[in-house]
User: Fold MucR family transcriptional regulator from Methylobacterium durans.
Amino acid sequence: MLEETPAQSAEFVELAAEIVSAFVANNPIPMSELPAVIASVHAALCGLGSAASQTAAEEVEKATPSQVRKSITPDALISFIDGKPYKTLKRHLSTHGLDPYSYRQRYGLPGDYPMVAASYAAQRSELAKSIGLGRPGAQASSERAARGSLKTT
Assistant:
C-alpha cells in the first residue's frame, strides 16, 4: 500500500472539510456525529488511491479461446494489451512491465502461447541455418572449410 505524504494528507483534510461542510449545509445532523462523519469522509478519500489500483488490476478480462486463436496470425501476434500486431511480443511486454509468464497469466493464455510470429521465427531459423548455426562443431567446421576451398578455386 502506498504511504501518504504530508502534502497529500493536508489536501485530503481540506477536501474532507469541503465535503463535510457541503453535506452539513444541506442535511441536519447532530453535533455529536460530526467527528465521525469527518473521519469517515477522510478515510474514504485516503482509500481512493489504493482501491482504484486494486480494481484496475482486477478488471483485466481473460481471453476467450476464440480470441486466443484470432490473436495468432502467421505474420504477427495481436497484443491483448493494445490490440496492435507485433512480430515479437517480448520487447512490447517489457515496456508494459510484463514478462511472457505474467502476460500469459494475466490474460489466461495457455503455456504454449507463442511470443514470436510463425513466419518471423521461420525467417530467423533459415538465417541461422544458412550461416551454420545449430550444427555440431565438427560438421560445421568441415562445411566451412569446404566452402572456403570452393571460394579460393
